[in-house]
Amino acid sequence: MGSFKLSIDATPEIMAMKVADRFSQCLEGVKTPLVCPASGTTPAPLYHELVRRHQSGAMDLSAWYFVGLDEWVGMNGGDEGSCRWWLDKDLFLPLGIGEDRICFFDGRSDDLAAQCAATERFIEQRGKMDVVILGIGTNGHIAMNEPGTDVMAGSRVVSLHPTTQTVGQKYFTTQTVLEKGVSLGLGTIREARHIFLLATGEHKASIIQQALEGPVNADVPASLLRDHPGLEVWIDEGAAGRLGRTGL
Ligand code: PGA
Question: How many domains would you assign to the chain?
Answer without folding.
Answer: 1
